Amino acid sequence: MRDTILLSLALSALPALAMAEVPKVVTDMPVVQSLTAQVMGDLGTPVVLLEQGANPHSYQMKPSQARALQEAGLLFWVGPEMTPWLSRAIDAAGGKVPQIALLHSDGTHLQSYVDDDDDDHDHDDDHDHDHGHDDHADADGHSHEGLDPHAWLDPHNAGNWVSVIAAALAKADPENAATYEANAKAAQERIDTLDKDLRAELTPVKDRPFVVYHAAYGYFAAHYGLQDEGSVAFGDATDPGAAHLSALRADLKAKGVVCAFPEASHDPRPMQRLIEGTEVRLGQPLDPEGTQITPGPDLYDTLMRTIGGNLSGCLGQ
Fold first, then answer.
1. CA-CA distance, 104 to 79, in Å (whole number)?
2. Backbone phi and psi for residue 211, each to the nearest 5 degrees, phi listed first
3. Which of 23, 75, 154, 291 has its CA 20 to 30 A from that of 201?
4. What is the model's pTM?
5. What single-letter DSSP state applies at residue 59?
6. pLDDT higher at 149 or 127
7. Mean pLDDT, rounded, for 244-269
8. What CA–CA distance (Å, rounded) separates 129 from 110?
9. What average pLDDT does range 26-40 have in this prediction?
10. How crowded is residue 74: how many other Cβ atoms within 10 Å of its Cβ?
């Protein structure tokens, strides 16, 4: 209810432009830019702040990007749990940037990070919808508990965000509301097709355990019923301690892990060392945030299909 009220207030704060004018739209990450670009279509191209290959959890904006943020007519971002640097920039701008934190929009399915040391990973259970943020990081800044912000990896959330984006754009630019609505419907149909394709591809490997570099795949694994058994790095991609790696290595055999997947924007050597001397196969790198994919409306579809293809390619051997 609280998030519904906050979103309603945010939408009501968006100015309905007196004359037909497409707002200058800024986004935080390539994934959000992709979804927004699909809704905007030919009406405009949203700016993305995060540069290709950069870590979304710890990024330093350039002065030109800070100016773009201050001049934005509308900002779409995941939320402070994903990009804390942007939260600070919004505060520095005096809170004057009209913005929608998609993670907290009504209809978004939320879940907590899965504890890598928990042996009972039942992905078919109801997920934790706790919206609290205080436990997101421990004393060392490691985000391995609390709210998981990688919610776009559940395609139902992506479809919901498309609706939220369209509603906000229609409020800011009512003369083009019908276009935003039509584009959103087309984007949702594309996401539905993607979801069906991925489910068909991944169902045969649902019982094949795997580990990943970075704790980002909880939504994807839960949605498709996959056996994600842990990660080398924590949710914000910070380096783990020796005890965590030792426990994870023990899990490789205990849980029958089949594949280990490095990440596109990170050094693969920690994953290679983890599985050295075992029968675990090294899969193709995953890119959950799309930082290695060319930005644009096709990025979300490409990101999801690549993750699905890389998982099934290794697990299905």
1. 7
2. -125, 160
3. 291
4. 0.84
5. -
6. 149
7. 90
8. 5
9. 98
10. 25
